[in-house]
Amino acid sequence: MSGPVIAFEDVTAAYRDRLALRNVTLSIQPGERVALIGPNGAGKSTLLAVATGLLRPAAGVVRLFGEHVADLDRLAVARRLAVVPGAAGLPFATRVEEVVALGRLPHEDPLRGPRPSDKAAVAAAIERVGVGHLLGRDARELSLGERQLVLIAMAVAQATPVLILDEPTVHLDLRHQVGAMELLADLNERDGTTIVAVLHDLALASHFFPRLVLLDGGRIVADGSPEEVLTAERIRDVFGVDPGFVRLSA
């Protein structure tokens, strides 16, 4: 397609009676890998909620593949983008493979249920994310890190052109953090999936993402390569720390 996959046009949004985004204009092109960074309360997760249509902006327009998100139903959105939340609870016992299979719901025939192609997509996602050793287990009994990997597998099974992740590494140990980032890079480079992720770890963001969008106070204060965005002055001004304590990827 031509044009951005996601476009924010002068978007202002409130969350819990607090102005969370202020006049944000941002375009994400097909095949990009973009990390949203910034301190707590900067508006990163709100930006994702607006992009997916879960939160309606107070002003401005959000477009998904050129269409107004507000005009799309949930199924239409789910066929265009998959979302991995930062934390998700499961209200009842669900085996790992059943959670991953939820990613196929937007594609299944509502009358016939899962097809062989759906089952193949679930199996491929389980193998690609490396959660096969968890099959048969109740997902509620997994560690938070294991559950996070299962949610990533569910999103991979969804097989959408855009993948959005809110703090995908927050519950993972260092080895699995790097593994998750390598998986996202592979999905982007080999499959052409557009990746948008909220990250707090600046080292991971600068190493694995060619484009960083820095938010502060609900506004975009920098947008570009890691070298352009994460200057010593910005680290000091936005994060309020001595840049010497922040180790970025070389």
In DSSP terms (H or I, runs of 4 or more residues), the helix count works out at 9
Rounded to an integer, what's the Rg over CA atoms? 18 Å
End-to-end span in angstroms? 34 Å
Point out poorly predicted stretches: none
Instruction: Tell me the structural class.
Output: alpha/beta
How many β-strand runs?
10
Strand order, largest beta sheet? 6-7-8-3-9-10
The oligomeric state is single chain
How much beta, percentage-wise? 15-25%
Please estimate the helix content: 25-40%
Mean pLDDT: 92
Largest β sheet strand count, sense and barrel closure: 6 strands, mixed
SSE run: EEEHEEHEHHHEHEHEEHH
Morphology call: globular
Explain what this protein looks like in three dimensions:
- The protein is of the alpha/beta class.
- The chain contains 9 helices and 10 strands.
- The protein has helices spanning 44-51, 74-78, 96-101, 116-129, 144-158, 174-191, 202-208, 226-229, 232-239, and strands at 6-15, 18-28, 33-37, 59-64, 67-68, 81-84, 162-166, 194-198, 211-216, 219-224.
- The strands form 2 sheets. Strands 6-7-8-3-9-10 form a 6-stranded mixed beta sheet, with helices on both faces.
- The longest helix has 18 residues, at 174-191.
- The mean pLDDT is 92.
Please give the structural blueprint.
Blueprint: E1 6-15, E2 18-28, E3 33-37, H1 44-51, E4 59-64, E5 67-68, H2 74-78, E6 81-84, H3 96-101, H4 116-129, H5 144-158, E7 162-166, H6 174-191, E8 194-198, H7 202-208, E9 211-216, E10 219-224, H8 226-229, H9 232-239
Parallel strand pairs: 3-8, 3-9, 6-7, 7-8
Antiparallel strand pairs: 1-2, 1-4, 4-5, 9-10
Helix pairs in contact: 4-5
